[in-house]
Amino acid sequence: xxxxxxxxxxxxxxxxxxxxxxxxxxxxxxxxxxxxxxxxxxxxxxxxxxxxxxxxxxxxxxxxxxxxxxxxxxxxxxxxxxxxxxxxxxxxxxxxxxxxxxxxxxxxxxxxxxxxxxxxxxxxxxxxxxxxxxxxxxxxxxxxxxxxxxxxxxxxxxxxxxxxxxxxxxxxxxxxxxxxxxxxxxxxxxxxxxxxxxxxxxxxxxxxxxxxxxxxxxxxx
Length: 221
Fold this sequence. Notes:
The protein is an alpha/beta fold. The protein has helices spanning 21-31, 89-98, 110-116, 132-137, 161-174, 176-185, 204-213, 215-218; strands at residues 2-3, 6-7, 9-14, 37-43, 47-50, 57-60, 62-63, 72-75, 103-107, 124-125, 141-142, 147-150, 153-156. The strands form four sheets. Strands 7-4-3-8-9-13-12 form a seven-stranded mixed beta sheet, with helices on both faces.
């Protein structure tokens, strides 16, 4: 869309009950300050949308029916994602706006929603490490990387990887210098106090504790 000679990119971030807030906020922070980029939170209805714990919320600016087109589509993950795997308004909206999007993206288990919409069949994609097998069962080709680009589909691994994905798209939307400004403005220079951010570096007992309590593992019991 062009407004007074300025190209405006609309990025629509989907929300649903049980969303992981950082999944949505990470990309939002990387895009909201870009020149010519408009970011909108969209959900089944306007108003607050609660996270998985029910204690935090984001506010949807628009309902699905009010956002029929978007240049960038982003689907975050969260425990509520499981309620959308058999279709419904979220999946239908994602499928519809994807038809004209420039980029369709996801964070964490949001890639499972993209798969449920039939968008990742045979494509390389990633998700939270605990969801990679499920992603494969849904027709994608799981890749254990932080950000995976396959054509116009960009998927991010678990939660914090949405910040990285947001920067990848920031460069494509506004150029490398603009993306670098955003990275510096947010002081995104991670130096975590522990080396437990990957299943390959975390203590074995921590990995197994999480695996045993994963909703993907518990579902089969």
